[in-house]
């Protein structure tokens, strides 16, 4: 019982960002959310009939689930599954999101003809560790694409000329994604 006042004092001294729930996230100036943390409005399945996911909290037989403000990739549901934004991006664009890879994570992000594998510890993901939150960015300027993790450029490549949606692939393992935002 004597520890309770210490816990309360510690919680009161934490910065507001640490205490803020996921649904209170405010994007940086110029960015807008692509994922609201409540449902999959603005997203669709990327295969077959490209069924709209508006109002839904699950996609691809539960491989993608909205849980506690995050988009959770459930590894118990097997199969290579994709979802994508209904909006396409054909000009300069900056996409940013926070992610936490889980066990056996090997999942991908596609935009403007580029694919980036999120695999903790591999060549471009050296600083990425399972169970820790990181920030991923894709910055398209002209025909150049920069992929960044935690603010550090880990790959630069050439962008495709054709407009594409942002596509997320659940290939293997677990991952959580939140605060998906875009600046055009």
Relevant terms:
disordered N terminus, mainly beta, five-stranded antiparallel β-sheet, nine-stranded antiparallel β-sheet, Jelly Rolls, globular, 184 residues, 45% strand
Biggest sheet architecture: 9 strands, antiparallel
Mean pLDDT: 90
- Give the count of helical stretches: 2
> What's the helix-strand series?
HHEEEEEEEEEEEEEE
Global geometry: globular
Helix-strand layout with pairing:
Blueprint: H1 4-13, H2 16-19, E1 32-33, E2 43-45, E3 58-59, E4 64-67, E5 70-73, E6 81-89, E7 93-101, E8 106-111, E9 114-118, E10 134-141, E11 144-149, E12 152-158, E13 164-172, E14 175-183
Antiparallel strand pairs: 1-14, 2-6, 3-4, 4-5, 5-14, 6-13, 7-10, 7-14, 8-9, 8-13, 10-11, 11-12
Outline:
The chain has 184 residues and is mainly beta. It contains two helices and 14 strands.
If you had to describe this structure to a student in words, what would you say it looks like?
The protein is mostly beta strands and 184 residues long. The chain has one domain (27-183): Sandwich (Jelly Rolls), CATH 2.60.120.560. The chain is built from two helices and 14 strands. It has helices at residues 4-13, 16-19; strands at 32-33, 43-45, 58-59, 64-67, 70-73, 81-89, 93-101, 106-111, 114-118, 134-141, 144-149, 152-158, 164-172, 175-183. The strands form two sheets. Strands 1, 3, 4, 5, 7, 10, 11, 12 and 14 form a nine-stranded antiparallel sheet that branches. It has a five-stranded antiparallel sheet with strand order 2-6-13-8-9, with no helix packed on it. It is globular. It starts with a helix and ends with a strand. The model is unreliable at 3-22 (pLDDT under 50).
